[in-house]
Each structure stands twice: as C-alpha cells, then as structure tokens.
Amino acid sequence: MKRHIGTALLLAPMVLFVTMTLVVPFALMFVESVRDTDVRNVLPRTIEALEGWDPARPIPSGAYGALVRDFAAAPASEWGRAANRLNREMPGARSLVLATLRKLDAADATDPRSALIAQDARWGEPGIWRAIWNARGPWTAAFLLAALDLERGQDGAIATTGQSIYRAIYVRTFGISLTVTAICFLLGLPVAVYLASLPPNRAVPLLLLLMLPLWTSVLVRAMAWILLLQNNGAVNQALIFLRITTEPLQLVFNRVGVLIAMTHVLLPFMVLPIYNVMRVIPRNQLRAAGSLGASPWVVFRRVYLPQCRAGIAAGCMLVFASGSGYYVTPALVGGGADQMLGTFVELAALRYSNQSLAAALGVVFMIIFLSLIGALFAWLRPMRAATEGLRA
Fold it and tell me: Is residue 67 one of the residues assigned to a domain?
C-alpha cells in the first residue's frame, strides 16, 4: 500500500503538468469551438421571442419590441462581437445592426416594428431575423463545419460551401510536415548510425555541432536562409560557379525554401532519439548474425534496424509534431501557396476577431494529428513482438 502511495506521489506532478498543459487547454479550445453566446448575450429577449419560430413563417410581432428593448438595454461596447457574429450569418448585418443601434431612441418603443423598418427596410425581411435565429446559441457546430469547408443549409442538411479552403490548408500543412519528416529521416538515419559507431568522447562534440540550429532565434534562422537562398545568395552563386546551373534557381519564397529551412531546424529532433537507441544495442548480436553468414545489409535490415524502431518512431513523431505547428518559417521563407495552418489561425483569431473559428481549426488539426500518430503506433505494434524476441 505504501509503495502505491509513493508511486502516486511521484507521478502526481507529471499528471498535473500534463493535465494543465494539454488536457485543460484542449478542453477549453473545444468548448470555444462550439460556444456561440455573442448574440445571446445582447439579444436575450429577442431570442426568447423567436423561440419556436420557423424561418419559413412570418416574423413574430413580439420580436420587434423585444429587439428594441435589447438595443436599449445592452451597452454599445458589447455590440461589436455580436454584430460580427451576425455578419457571418448574413453579409451586411454588422452595418445594419450598428447603424440601427445609433439611430434608435426611447420613442421607438411605442411602435417598434415601424421604427425598425423606418431605419432600414431589411428589418421587415426574414434575412436578418434568420441570422439572429441561427446565431442564437449557446452551442453550435457552425464553426467546426466551417473549419471543414462545410455549412448547414436552410433545410438543416450539411453540404460543402463550394470552396475547399481549409481542407486544402490541412493537406498542405500535413503534406509539408510529412515531407520534412521523410527528409529528416533519410538524412538523420545515416548520421545517427555513424554517431552510434563512435566512442562517446568523439560523438558528443558532433552532437553539439548538430544542435547548433536550436540555439539561435527562429527569426534569425529564417532571415539567414533568405539571404543564402535568394537569387544572388551564396547557394545560387556556388551552383553557378560549379556550372551545375547557368542561371539562379528560385530557392526561396516557395516550397523548396520552406522544406530546406524546416529540415535545418528539425534534423536534430530526428537524430537524437535514434542515436540514443542505437548506442545501447549490443554489438555482439551484429557479430553473431555476421558469423552465421548474413551480409552487412541483411544484418542492418533484419537485426539492427528493428531494434531502432522506438527511436525512429520518437524522432518521426517529434519532427512531425513540431513541423505541423510551424508558423514563422513558412510565413517568411515560403510564398503565398506555402502558408501553413498557423497563419490562418492567427488571421481568424487576431485579424478577424473570430476566436471560435480559430479554436475550431485547432480542434480539427488536433484530431487529424492524433489520428496520424495513432496510425504510426498501429504500424509499429506488429513489429514489437519480433523486436522483443530478438533482444531476448
């Protein structure tokens, strides 16, 4: 019993840390992606008056008076977010709401319908009322649907918006991340094999040299690659001098520059986990396989590499997880067609003040990311028994 208590106490800080830095933020992000209270907060009476309303039917007469009372009750400072939310349901709703808010006065409460229509004829049409009804909240799937380029039609059916904006961004983001992961693996595996063959006193300085990119600022690294890869940069000048090409290559502000800059930074995350696994593999297994007639390639492929799968999986996961969340490097080194999901989350959250859409993009991203990580572990699971038997 005491041992279980001691184990629980030792694990408690880690569990608390994971909960506070992963579980709680993801839960809050999910709640924000489905929360829809901006309109409800300023139009509670109007939403109550529209309760049970069918948008195909006439507008309830009591909704006009409720709307005028809500206009009078809510402070003007609270209308910005609600107007933005309505504008996403009906283009032009923001200007309509804010203009009406400025012009209404207390006398309009005597005949609210006439007063509202006198301010703008659109108050007599079902469009703006349908927008209020659709944004009534407090929960909605609209932002998650928008993050997948889907929308709910007037009949309640879910259909595509006709544009593949965010789905293309997911494909681009994870495509770039997987490409960088593959490049890092192809470059990092030979480096890890070489470092593992060296004694520690010779491997450590090379590891420190490999980690140099991690000790500089992301912004500095990106600007350095821009200077190196531009048309008159050192790389193009070297290629022309060596007669590999006769004119400068476009190596920056495109996908090539993004891949080069990201690989430069993320390569250590691939090498270190693989190296840590390789350096503890008993060398007598390799000698025994060779003494039984196996060629060096067979020894590497069937004896050495299977025991490195844990390090390979860790390296791939670190590179993929870090690469899929990149923001500064693609924004600076890439072109307009190379911007990854982080750029669009920033646009939604800061430029367009649509935190719910930004949260929905994050939720969809996390679901796709966890699915890919789960597929990686599913691929590794059948190999575990063979690897454990080999070590035994």
Answer: yes
Q: How many CB atoms lie within 10 A of CB 273?
A: 23
Q: Is 236 exposed, middle or buried (0-12, 13-18, 19+ CB in 10 A)?
A: buried
**Residue in 250, 208, 220 with CA at minimum distance from that of residue 328:** 220
In the three-class reduction of DSSP (H, G, I as helix; E, B as strand; rest coil), residue 110 is classed as coil
CATH number at residue 349: 1.10.3720.10
Q: Compute how many other C-beta atoms are within 10 angstroms of the C-beta atom of residue 110.
A: 10
Can you name the residues that pair with 158 across neighbouring β-strands? 152
126 and 198, same domain (yes or no): no
Q: Give the per-residue pLDDT at 366.
A: 92
pLDDT in tens, 231-259: 898 899 998 888 888 888 888 999 999 99
Instruction: For residues 370-391, give the mean pLDDT.
Output: 67
Query: What are the counts of helices (DSSP H) followed by strands (DSSP E) for the chain?
Result: 21, 2
User: What pLDDT is recorded for position 178?
Assistant: 93
Do 210 and 302 lie in a common domain?
yes
Residue 303 lies in a domain: yes
pTM for this one?
Answer: 0.84
CB 116 within 8 A of CB 68: yes
Domain count, the chain: 2
Helix (H) or strand (E) holding 109, with range, is none
Rounded Cα gap, residues 368 and 347, in angstroms: 21
Q: How many CB atoms lie under 10 A from the CB of residue 41?
A: 14
Domain that holds residue 112: 38-137
User: Does residue 132 share a domain with residue 190?
Assistant: no
Query: Is residue 328 a part of any domain in this protein?
Result: yes
3-state secondary structure of 150: strand
Mean pLDDT for the chain?
86
DSSP 139: B
Residues 307 and 369 in one domain: yes
- Whether 217 is covered by a domain: the verdict is yes
